[in-house]
Specification:
single chain; six-stranded mixed beta sheet; FAD-dep_OxRdtase
Length: 343
């Protein structure tokens, strides 16, 4: 069996790596040379935790985190930093089932804190009454770019092929047509081209299956709020984590849909909104401070969200749709997707 994978982001690299590990009889070619512009994997904040409100996503994230923590080679390849995670929930949020999943997969990691307990432990200000949080000890952030680089090296070492050729179209044969003009047939083709996937499907005359592109942006400020690792505030969507030796990364969701992933354009108003919202919540960054840097990229979204293998037509699949969260789920999602392909 021969599988052709388009895209050498974290999704393409890990599904190829899983295939080589679980089914060495399968020939795997990964096409990595995409269009210009940084990809989602290179820009990613890399926050990883077990908690997600949606139970299947929670199980995926928790399983992936347990695998990462239990495998020293993976942990080191991904430059995992265990700084903990705080997920702030609005009053009345129902989290019994995801917290049960966390306890099963990562025993002793998660605690549910009330607003008063939160104020005692963390630098949050002005939280609405009734707000609670899921706090995880065994969580933090990793480098998707480093994990991708390691996976591509493992693929090449284990007999897979990494081709630095952009793919122009895919046909239902299934086959891939490279920019060098060569067409190559496979038993299965997987489009893991992240935010470039919808355009590649359209260029190939195939349906996009509801996949869309959305901008993601964050800024890094000098200095950090004391005692805080990674955090997400669900109602505003604010998120952040320590960055480098002394910086702190902060972001809010963007509302820019259907952007061109090859030409990311910073949303200046969003940079200001992030600083104002963070100042209200954390007292950081101090007034007048400009970011050290702002990262702008995009990801491929699907409704419902989730990195998963989706069939486009017989033999042609997409493996994308992480919707801004695939760093958390890619380990488990790639394992499941490789098992389906191998069957
Ligand atoms: C700014 C930002 C912050 C994020 N933060 C987090 C976070 O904190 N936690 C979390 O869980 N998730 C986060 N995410 C989401 C996560 O990083 C992404 O879901 C994930 O990296 C997507 O990986 P991918 O491989 O699907 O796409 P990409 O990384 O974009 O990779 C797609 C690859 O396909 C290649 N390609 C495209 N077209 C072609 C072609 N025609 N031929 C060959 N190759 C092609 C591209 O060059 C690219 O390398 C973030 C995303 C962004 C953008």
């Amino acid at each position: 069996m021969r599988v052709g994978i388009v895209g050498g982001g974290i999704a393409g690299a890990l599904i190829a790596w899983r295939l080589r590990r679980t089914a060495p009889r399968i020939t795997v070619d990964v096409y990595t040379a995409g269009p210009a512009g940084g990809d989602a994997t290179g820009a990613s904040g890399g926050l990883v935790r077990g908690f997600e409100r949606v139970v299947p996503l929670c199980r995926q994230a928790a399983d992936g985190l347990a695998e990462l923590r239990g495998d020293p080679a993976l942990r080191s390849a991904a430059a995992y930093r265990e700084v903990g995670s705080v997920y702030l929930l609005p009053a009345g949020a129902e989290v019994t089932e995801p917290v049960r999943v966390l306890e099963e997969v990562l025993p002793g990691s998660a605690t549910l804190l009330t607003g008063a307990e939160l104020a005692g432990h963390y630098p949050f200000r002005g939280l609405p009454s009734g707000m609670t949080a899921v706090v995880e000890r065994q969580a933090g952030f990793l480098s998707p770019a480093r994990l991708r680089a390691a996976a591509l090296a493992w693929i090449a070492d284990s007999g897979g092929t990494v081709r630095r050729v952009p793919v122009v179209t895919v046909t239902p044969a299934p086959a891939l047509c490279g920019a060098d003009g060569a067409a190559k047939g496979y038993d299965a083709v997987v489009l893991a081209a992240g935010p470039w996937t919808p355009a590649l499907l359209t260029a190939s005359g195939l349906p996009t299956g509801g996949l869309r592109v959305k901008q993601i942006q964050y800024s890094v400020y000098e200095g950090r709020p004391a005692g805080l690792g990674a955090f997400v505030r669900e109602d505003t969507g604010m998120w952040g984590r320590p960055d480098g030796e002394t910086g702190f990364l902060l972001g809010l969701p963007s509302d820019r849909w259907d952007v061109d992933p090859s030409c990311p354009q910073p949303d200046v108003a969003l940079v200001d909104r992030v600083a104002e919202e963070a100042r209200r919540l954390l007292g950081h960054p101090p007034a007048g401070h400009r970011p050290l840097r702002t990262a702008v990229s995009s990801d491929c979204y699907h409704d419902p969200p989730g990195l998963a293998l989706r069939e486009v037509c017989p033999g042609v699949f997409t493996f994308t749709g992480g919707s801004g969260g695939a760093a958390k789920t890619v380990l488990a999602a790639s394992r499941a997707a490789a098992a389906v392909l191998a069957r």
